[in-house]
Amino acid sequence: MSELDTLTKEQQEIIEEARRRRTFAIISHPDAGKTTLTEKLLLYGGAIHEAGSIRQRKANRYAASDWMAIEKDRGISVTSSVLRFEKDNIKFNLLDTPGHKDFSEDTLRTLVAADTALMVIDVAKGVEEQTEKLFEVCKMREIPIITFVNKCDRPGLEPLEVISNIENQLGIEPIPASWPLGYGREFQGIYDLIGKELHLQHKEEHGAKKAHTEKYNLEEGLKEAQLSDHEKEKFREEVMLTEDMMKMMDEEAFKNGKATPVFFGSALNNFGLDVFLEYFAELAHPPQPYLDESGNEREIGRGFSGFVFKMQANMNPDHRDCAAFIRITSGKFERGIEVTESNTGKKVKMSTPHTLMGDERNILEEAYPGDVVSLFNPGSFRIGTTIYSDDPVKFDVIPLFTPEHFRKVSTKDPFKRKQLREGLKQLAEEGVVHVFEMPNGVGNELLLGTVGALQFDVVEHRMETEYNTELHISSVSYHAARWLDQNQEIIEKLESSYSTHVTEDMEGTPIVLFDSGYALNQAEEKVGAENLYKFKQG
Ligand code: GDP
Predict the structure, then answer these.
(1) Nearest residue (CA) to ligand 1, atom 24
(2) What ipTM was predicted for this assembly?
(3) Alpha-carbon torsion, ordered 455, 457, 462, 463, to 10 deg
(4) pLDDT more than 70, % of the chain
(5) Are 330 and 371 in contact (CB under 8 A)?
(6) For position 254, what pLDDT does the model report?
(7) What residues does the Tr-type G domain cover (predicted)?
(8) How far is the CA of 267 from the centre of ligand 1 (A)?
(9) 34 lines ligand 1 (CB under 6 A)
(10) What confidence score (pLDDT) does residue 315 get?
């Protein structure tokens, strides 16, 4: 008897639906090609027929909605949506995160809602800073990571150099899954190391259409390839060296994010994408059970549950509206169901949920684990809120990330202290910014902390437009921070150092601020690095 036979019909349906979902997020540094690759995945996934529309849609969105002046001014996307496409009966949910330089905690939180991370690396640059930060979150969650080395049509590191760069920078084991035939200007296709086929490719219509592809076995393909005999010989050697690595990959190491299959290609020219997408569907995880607050797995087939991983306010400035993005963790979602908010016990009817595909909003009738539902004007929902229909559960899955940028803030008008606290408290609850008491602070000032510096502009703008409070923001000299437990002994030890300052956020969670990297090192020695948290479960 199979595992499915003991379940009710509805549970079977839920599990089967969940199994064909792949919910993933892209981790990359700006300019590595995330936007281009996203679009090409939609092209190869059959969701669009010609590339170019996403950028177009991005541009239209700025024109149609100026919900946030900053977004428009800087021509970047501060917010993110979910892109869905279906291919060969597999449903992909791409939790689209912004890829600009000033990234925010939102970008990190999105990874908490993803089952797989797709790491995009620029072949010329190797692993870059923002990718490393995002990688830390993947490591914490132990989710599988699949790597795409992009821009192989440009001069860059040689494939073997990329492999060792990934290993050295991230301490993860890279396992070649495809291999580029020629690189830079000579890049002309991909060897599929799993299927053992050489794909010779030509770009079509500057990459707007799928690449023209001819498949050969290795030797036949090499006869057709435009490479010198010496380069062909080198290619054979590299293939010999790498071709069995995927077969021997340690499944557990891959599942826990300790080994990553590496694909090569060019998103711009559409080289290597067919091979990549085919194996991505196989390799990427279907939804896994999340752990509830007691550490027990919430089985996928149980009653409906989910958690809010992202809040987006003021999508339309005329209505002061707000959307909560909910990752479904178990059960079936149906429009109109009544859910309970686990921390307040409040009941909410899910009557107008939407999914967002770019800018077209479709009302969603049903959804399964792995899917994301966005609910407009969700009242008291906050980041991390758990909801369930009739089978109670509470998740505590959204960590506090360590702020890396700090500013001191007060109101220009001294009579607006109350608005300052109230407004900032709300923004903190929405997850826009961390708000702390100033260490040894007096009067009117509060301390803001963010993961990305752009968030300060967001805070300033929103405080002015939504709370009618003009801020005075000034710099402070804090260099780094670490979250703490409520442990008086450790707090006292830390407070005794001159360049180390303990304070707390508006919920009373203690945090320590350091004036320098040296002060941080000193503290690690004094109280133990294991007591200073880079991420803290909220
Ligand atoms: P993002 O910032 O990561 O979203 O990067 P984009 O997708 O916007 O790409 C950044 C730049 O790199 C753009 O000018 C793209 O046209 C270019 N680009 C993306 N993929 C490739 C590629 O495979 N080859 C080359 N030569 N350029 C690419």
Answers:
(1) 151
(2) 0.99
(3) 110
(4) 87
(5) no
(6) 97
(7) 19-288
(8) 7
(9) yes
(10) 53
Q: Is 99 in the pocket of ligand 1 (CB under 6 A)?
A: yes
- Look up residue 217 and give its two tokens: 């076995």
Could you read off the pLDDT of 65-123 as tens digits, one per residue? 333 443 344 333 334 467 788 899 999 998 875 544 557 888 889 999 999 999 999 99
What is the position in ligand 1's atom list of the atom closest to the CA of 266? 23
Name, in order, each residue with C-beta under 8 angstroms of 133's C-beta and a sequence gap of 6 or more. Answer: 103, 108
pLDDT band at 3 (very low <50, low <70, confident <90, very high): low
Evaluate: CB of 131 within 6 angstroms of ligand 1: no
- Domains belonging to the chain, first-starting first, are 21-283 (3.40.50.300), 290-388 (2.40.30.10), 399-537 (3.30.70.3280)
- 32 CB near ligand 1 (under 6 Å): yes
Decide: 253 and 259 in contact? Cβ < 8 Å.
yes
Q: Does ligand 1 have an atom closer than 6 angstroms to the CB of 39?
A: no
Q: Which atom in ligand 1 lies closest to the alpha carbon of residue 32?
A: 3
E strand spans, 304-352: 305-313, 322-330, 333-334, 338-341, 347-349
Q: What is the pTM of this model?
A: 0.90
Tell whether ligand 1 has an atom less than 6 A from the beta carbon of residue 35. Answer: yes
Expressed in angstroms and rounded, the spacing between residue 97 Cα and the centre of ligand 1 is 16
Q: How far is the CA of 268 from the centre of ligand 1 (A)?
A: 7
